Amino acid sequence: MGRRLLAVATVMTLAACGGDSSPTPTSPEAGTPNTPPPTTPMVTPLRRIVENRGLRVKIGAAAGALFNSTDAASAQYMTVLAREFNVLTPENEMKFSSLRPSRTEYRYARPDSMVTWAASNNMLVRGHVLVWHSQLPNWLTSGSWTTAETRTLMLEHIAAVAGRYKGKLAAWDVVNEAYTDGTPTLRPGFWADRLGRSYIEDAFRAAYAADSATPLYYNDYNIEGLGAKSDSVYNLLRDLKARGVPVHGIGMQMHLIAGQIPTVESLTANFARFAALGLKIQITEMDVRVPTPGTAAMFATQADNYRDVLNVCLQTTACDMFVVWGVTDRASWIPSTFPGQGDALLFDRDFVAKPAYTAINTLLSTR
Ligand code: XIL
To answer: What is the mean pLDDT of residues 288-299?
Structure first.
């Protein structure tokens, strides 16, 4: 009876072992009544597989509200974050509205604490994000700025923030989501409306002037497979590269719907054409949402989707990072943004590893 329960627990719970690269240890035999129950077989954490096997592709997660917070789940969150991932992306903490309560004040305490904590846990940090139409403060968007003033505001923001983190980041998302879905036009927004298309290259040049050592990324969603929006971004980056603008990588956000992802062929061909421009590729915000509550069948599809995307990254030499947009289904942007959907991450609300976790753990271990 006890053994049956433990067998079930073994399937349900993947208690990962610390930094150990040894093969999965077997459970000690159940012995006398004083012997502790057999330990759950341990699975090597994702980051340890990557590190021990010297894989090119780093594994990351966005860190958000549960990072070092008073929430009861925070301690477990921190444990899983440090155990499983070797890249951290601040989910909101480096965005304009978080950093800049007014033009003259900068709130660096929380993003600084993430950068420091990541370094002490041997994790890289992806900087996210310098120029975006969203999460801008009211003092900025409601101001009546001239074109020249708007440009100065953008440039001074980049100089300050990229300067602050100079030499400490593995990547910067310099421009985020500049294109609309469906049409090859620029997305309207605060920067594009006032500055026109040139804001994009100006942003990259300013980031490079502030920190010439950190790879600079263009980041977007619905550009992961071949398609009209991906064509637009491809043409943009080809043009920027041709004119010597310092852009080094393409961030594929990868916010997907379970069972509706681009085909592996489409992802592979799309990654290849960006790589052929001389760009690095990173998967920057992956999640795979399901209708909630998720079913076993949906979680199986979700696992296939995670595995397929990671596999395309592993097979594309230019792809060197795979970042998921959160740690646990307990804290994800999906349910509030896409009502009725969620359960999009690798760990469930109780930090139990899901089939998607197992799928990518297995792929990293065996490829
Ligand atoms: C989301 C965060 O996860 C939410 O907490 C926040 O309320 C809104 O932004 N694309 C991006 C990310 O580039 O910055 C967004 O993050 C998700 C979509």
So the answer is: 97
191 vs 151: CA distance, rounded Å: 8
The verdict on the CB of residue 333 being under 6 Å from ligand 1 is yes
Pocket lining: 92 vs ligand 1, CB cutoff 6 Å: yes
Q: Whose CA is nearest to atom 12 of ligand 1?
A: 91
Burial 305-344 (b: 16+ CB within 10 A, else e): bbbbbbbbbbebebbbbbbbbbbbbbbbbbeeeeeebbbb
Q: What are phi and psi of 168, to 5 degrees?
A: -110, -5
27 confidence band (pLDDT: 50, 70, 90): very low
Kindly report, residue by residue over 145-183, the tens digit of the pLDDT: 999 999 999 999 999 999 999 999 999 999 999 999 877
Q: Are 40 and 9 in contact (CB under 8 A)?
A: yes
For residue 93 and ligand 1, the question of a CB distance below 6 A is answered with no
Query: Which pLDDT score, from 0 to 100, does residue 182 have?
Result: 76
Q: Hey, whose CA ends up nearest to atom 1 of ligand 1?
A: 333
Supply the residues annotated as catalytic.
177, 285
pLDDT for the residue numbered 37: 43
Residue type for 322, please? F
Q: How many CA atoms lie within 13 A of 32 on its CB side?
A: 1
Which residues make Cβ contacts (< 8 Å) with residue 365, sequence separation at least 6?
44, 49, 53
Enter the pTM of the model. 0.90
CATH code: domain 6-365 is 3.20.20.80
As a whole number of angstroms, the distance between CA 132 and CA 177 comes to 7
CA of 48 to the centre of ligand 1 (A): 28
Report the separation in Å between the CA atom of 91 and the middle of ligand 1, taken as the mean of its atom positions.
7
pLDDT tens digits, one per residue of 301-348: 999 999 999 999 999 999 999 999 999 999 999 999 999 999 999 999
Q: Which of 67, 91, 327, 332 for mutating ligand 1's site (highest number of atoms within 8 Å of CB)?
A: 91
pLDDT at 185: 85
pLDDT reading at 367 higher than 50:
yes
The domain segmentation of the chain, as residue ranges, is 6-365
Residue 222 beta carbon below 6 angstroms from any ligand 1 atom: no
Closest C-alpha to ligand 1, atom 13: 176
